[in-house]
Automatic annotation (TrEMBL), chains A, B:
Record-given protein name: Alcohol dehydrogenase catalytic domain-containing protein
Source species taxonomy: Bacteria, Pseudomonadati, Pseudomonadota, Betaproteobacteria, Burkholderiales
Family per record: Belongs to the zinc-containing alcohol dehydrogenase family.
Pfam families, per database record: ADH_N, ADH_zinc_N
Cofactor requirement: Zn(2+)
Annotated ranges, domain Enoyl reductase (ER): 11-354
Key words of the record: Metal-binding, Oxidoreductase, Zinc
PANTHER family the UniProt entry points to: ALDEHYDE REDUCTASE
UniProt keyword Cell membrane, yes or no: no
Length: 368, 368
């Protein structure tokens, strides 16, 4: 076992606090990573607070992890000590189901689906068809910590052109928006709408723009219209009915990144015939959709979950190539609870990234 | 003007009654049709009762019309006197928009969209961008009458192999289900689910089976399980959770034909990854969809509206070729109000078709 330190919680109702715990040493196919930076994702908050009713405690969140390889197992061939690497939302999958065989591990249909970087398998033993946990671990601890041990196949390469702290949010916010933009074929000249302009939304806007699309972001926050202008995309207040009117039936693709239940009907009206609106932010029941508008123009409402390993490597390389990345604010881990509050209040511009070196200032660690 | 007789109503709250009225004579590009049979569609009931809040009164419903050509305008080239022909939901479209130019008139994006066989333009003047009605008619009278006058381009040919009374429901129930089955690429070996087993549902089941799919119908009505067996398709009670469990993630395409607000979540769970559930029955807000299931397997919820003229001709020919058609019960028009009640109570097996010769027994006609 190796000693690990991080920020976590044992309950849904308490702040994150420093904890000391242990991790398994790297096996023959695993790499040990010194965590340098970890992005703060809205889903970390959902998970810590058990807002999806599936949190396994203790919870050490963090799935936008960039670090330096410090040790490799005997059979590791893809990464070497000293490499700057990334770990996203997954650290293992069943590897046998059809999606795994075709490189779509994020849709793993194994009995426990994929193993999340924190919170354990996506389908825990209690919900698995055979009542078992094929990963042998009910919980996993994420990147709000100083060290991570991950199978080499689930470790991404951070391109030289990307700063490690900028690369971190690409591992979730980046790929979660890149994957559907790619899957639904966004191409130069397309009109693309992005609903919600936070961590995911601002990455979606930058990626769609780099793909050659004309991008319009829809936001509830007036001062974000300036941010849209700064990124060179259109900005519209989503409650401004007069502004929405001329946009009716004009979008080739719309991506909703709002991380909670919302009304997508006003945006469905903005789609062209046969076009798709994809919802990636809210993993819960949405407000009722009026099928009249959907049927009258043969529209689609779809969803998408993060992205595959190959999508993740692609978006890292795409960002390096196009010179884009998230707008980040680096924080010490001691500020994490304040940062959570600001994310919830839509005050982040746009992604907090924890500098994990700050953990070294901590002297008093709790035990799980 | 020519004298016409039919069944209609001036209010949402009264039964259909016999009316005498006038129609324009056939213009140079129009054909006059003696109506032989007209199917009874659930949407006739919605429209008569103003359940979509858009009914133009007086209302003479009927858009599954089969008849004999009795007169043709000077420039008509497609049809001749004596031909057995059909008229579905549309009798005109703008002919200039992109969907009209590519043969998808049912998605006409002209200022008034398409002109419905009854109830006038889909977008009335009051709702049109320019406040006008390009068709020059605020209302149209449908096939619950003895004569119809329609532009030749919107008149379909009834293949010799199809009885006129059997062909009638194909003009709406048939094409409304055929069009999405074709659009989403149903092919031999596919697992296809049909939700709702009434007029549309039983046509969908027959069509999907003839396309080579393995078909499962979901119904709330226990005695319809025997009907499913009779048609050679699987039948499942949609409230039977134990029966649904093994069907999870097993369908390539699911079509919902239920003509009112319902919960589609149990059926979304039955879709394979990347598959589509299309809702054609309910033209209103559905119950909230849980995006977690949609996103976790990148599923789609879509809608579809009837079908194009070419889809309509195709499904008529397809039915003739495969020897299939709706299960019908022929009624005299005097039974129409009873038939409406039975359709609402899910007691029809499966489609009522009015024999319009029965109108000749009527002696006392009201005036609009």
């Amino acid at each position: 076992m190796i000693a690990a330190k991080g920020y976590g919680t044992k309950h849904s109702f308490t702040d994150l606090k420093p904890y000391a715990f242990e991790r398994e040493e790297a096996g023959p196919h695993e790499v040990e990573i010194e965590v340098l930076f970890c992005g703060v994702c809205h889903s970390d908050i959902h998970q810590v607070k058990n807002e999806w009713s599936n949190t396994v405690y203790p919870c050490v969140p963090g799935h936008e992890v960039v670090g330096r390889v410090t040790r490799v197992g005997a059979h590791v061939g893809k990464h070497a000590v000293g490499d700057i690497v990334g770990v996203g939302c997954m650290i293992e999958s069943c590897r046998h189901c059809a999606p795994c065989q075709t490189g779509e591990e994020n849709y793993c249909e194994g009995p426990n689906s994929w193993l999340a970087t924190y919170n354990g398998p996506m389908v825990p033993a209690e919900k698995a068809p055979d009542g078992k946990n094929s990963y042998g671990r009910d919980n996993t601890f994420g990147g709000y910590s100083d060290v991570l041990v991950v199978n080499e196949d689930f470790v991404l390469k951070i391109p030289a052109g990307l700063k490690p702290e900028v690369a971190a949010p690409i591992l979730c916010a980046g790929v979660t928006t890149y994957s559907p933009l790619k899957h639904w074929g966004v191409k130069p000249g397309d009109e693309v709408g992005i609903v919600g302009f936070g961590g995911l939304g601002h990455m979606a806007a930058k990626l769609a723009k780099a793909m050659g699309a004309t991008v319009t972001v829809f936001t509830k926050t007036a001062d974000k219209l300036k941010e849209a202008a700064r990124l060179g995309v259109n900005g519209v207040l989503e409650d401004d009915k007069e502004a929405l009117k001329p946009l009716k039936s004009s979008f080739d693709f719309i991506l909703s990144t709002i991380p909670e239940k919302h009304d997508i009907n006003p945006f469905i009206e903005l789609l062209k015939r046969d076009a798709t609106m994809c919802v990636v932010g809210a993993l819960e029941p949405l407000k009722p959709v009026n099928n009249q508008e959907v049927a009258f123009h043969r529209k689609h409402v779809a969803g998408s979950l993060i992205g595959s390993l190959s999508d993740t490597q692609e978006v890292l390389d795409f960002c390096a190539q196009h010179g884009i990345g998230p707008d980040i604010e680096i924080i010490p881990i001691q500020d994490i609870n304040k940062a959570f509050k600001k994310v919830e209040d839509s005050e982040a511009r746009f992604r907090y990234v924890i500098e994990m070196a700050s953990l070294k200032d901590e002297t008093d660690f709790h035990q799980f």
